[in-house]
Specification:
homodimer, alpha/beta, Arc Repressor Mutant, subunit A, Rossmann fold, 2 domains, three-stranded antiparallel β-sheet, 10 strands, 48% helix, DNA-binding
Chain lengths: 225, 225
DNA sequence: TAGATTGTTAATCGATTAACAATC
DNA sequence: TAGATTGTTAATCGATTAACAATC
C-alpha cells in the first residue's frame, strides 16, 4: 500500500488554512463550504477540496466542512497538538525579538534557552530565559530534550553551529542565517531568508514601474488605444 | 510583441542565484558553467539555463557564464541597482531588529524612519533613526519620498495602518503582521509570516517521525525487509 | 578545427482547475 | 425527496527536465 506523499505546495498552504479557520472559529462560525472559504481566501473551491482530500474526507456532502473539526485536524497535521521545546542561538536583536514573541507559545512552541558567544550577553534574560555561553549548548540540549534550534547568528558562525547541532538529538533547525545548511535527513530545516524576501519585493516594485512606463509610452505613440 | 511574463517560481530563485554568484565573485572566480553552478546549488543545469534565459542570453557557448556580469545583471533585474527608502512601522523587538540590520543598507535599502503609537517609545533611536508618533506618518512619507513601509505591528493595527498607507505614495509593503492585506495593484506586498514558517517546520518534524515509526513497524512485522 | 557549453525545443512531470457523479 | 455540496476523475495549465542543434 503506497502512501501518497503530500506535495510541498499543499503543505505550504496549510498554515494559511489554519489561520483562516481559527478566525472563523473565533467568530463562532460552525460550518463553511469550499465555495465560501474560497471567496474568503481568494482561492478556487476546487483547490480547497483537493487540498483537504489529501488527508481524507473532512467534509460532508450537502453540508460543507465543520469549522472547528477542520481547524483541529489541520492543527494535528501540522503537529500543533504536540509540544516543541526550542532554543535560540544568537541573542542579538532578531533572537530577542523571536524570544519575546508570545504567540509561538500558544501553538505549543516552548522557549527554553538562549545562547550567545558574546560574554557580555551571558546571564542577561529574555522573558525569564537566561542567555548561556556556547560551551553549554550540547549539554543543555540533551538535558532539556530540545527539539528545535533557532539560528539567529551570522552566516559564518551558522555553518559551525549547524555542524555542532548535527552531533545532538535536535530534530529541526529554524534558520535565519543567510546560508544554506547541509544537514542529515533526520534534521528538518526551514529557512527564513529575510533579504531574499526583501529582494523579491524590490523586484515587484521594479517590474510594476517598468510596466507603467511601457503603458505610458504605448499610449503616447498610439500603438494601442 | 507580447512581453513574456516571468513566472513566480523563477523570481523566487533569483535572490538565491544572486547570493551564490556574490560568493563566487568574492572568491575571485571569473566564470562558471551551468553544470558547475548546478552542483553547487543543488539544482539541475537545465533549470539554471532556463531561468537565465528568461532574461536573454547571459552566457556564451563553450565558455559558460561570466560571474561578475551575471551577478550584476541579476542585481539589476531585482532592482538592487537603485535605492529604496524605507520606514519601519512598529518599534517593538522585531522592528528594532530589522532597523539594526545593516546588510539591507548594502543592497540599497535606506532606513529613514520609524513609527510607533506607544508614546514611551517616541524619541528613542535605532541606529540614529528616531521613532516618531503615528500622526506624522503621512507627512513624513511625502516629504522623504519613502518607497517601502515595513509593518512590524500586530494584526489588528496592521489593517488600519495599511489603509492609511493606501492614501500615500508608498510603493510597497513588507508585511510581518499575520494578516493578508488587501491593497491596490500599485502597492506591492511581500508577506513574511513567521508563524507559518514555524508551522511548516513542525509539520516536517511530525512527518519524519511518522515515517520512522512506519518503517520500524514494517521491519518488525516483516512486511518488507 | 575540436571541445565545451549555451540557448532552445520537445518530453515529462506536477499542480491547478473544471466537471460531475456520489451522497448527505 | 430535492437541493446542496463534497469527493474524485478528467482536462488543462505551468514548471521542470531532457535532449540536441547552434555556436563560441
Amino acid at each position: 500500500m503506497e502512501e501518497k506523499e503530500i506535495s510541498p505546495a499543499v503543505i505550504g498552504r496549510l498554515p494559511r488554512y489554519f489561520r483562516y479557520l481559527g478566525e472563523l472559529k473565533d467568530e463562532g462560525i460552525e460550518r463553511i463550504s469550499s465555495q465560501d472559504l474560497s471567496e474568503l481566501m481568494q482561492a478556487t473551491a476546487s483547490q480547497i477540496r483537493q487540498d483537504f482530500n489529501n488527508f481524507g474526507g473532512f467534509g460532508q456532502q450537502g453540508y460543507g466542512y465543520n469549522v472547528e473539526y477542520l481547524y483541529d485536524e489541520i492543527g494535528k497535521i501540522l503537529g500543533l497538538d504536540r509540544q516543541h521545546r526550542f532554543i535560540i542561538i544568537g541573542a542579538g536583536n532578531l533572537g530577542r525579538a523571536l524570544g519575546n514573541y508570545m504567540n509561538f507559545e500558544r501553538r505549543g512552541f516552548l522557549f527554553r534557552g538562549m545562547f550567545d558567544q558574546n560574554p557580555e550577553l551571558i546571564g542577561s534574560q529574555v522573558r525569564g530565559v537566561k542567555v548561556m555561553p556556547m560551551e553549554e549548548l550540547e549539554t543543555f540540549i540533551r538535558e532539556n530534550h530540545i527539539d528545535i534550534a533557532v539560528l539567529t547568528i551570522p552566516k559564518a558562525s551558522a555553518l559551525n553551529v549547524a555542524k555542532r547541532l548535527v552531533g545532538t538529538d535536535i530534530r529541526a533547525i529554524w534558520n535565519f542565517a543567510h546560508v544554506d545548511l547541509d544537514l542529515p535527513e533526520r534534521i528538518q530545516v526551514e529557512n527564513v531568508h529575510l533579504s531574499d524576501s526583501l529582494m523579491k519585493l524590490s523586484y515587484s516594485i521594479n517590474r510594476y514601474e517598468q510596466e507603467q512606463e511601457k503603458t505610458a509610452k504605448k499610449r503616447q505613440t498610439g500603438v494601442e488605444s
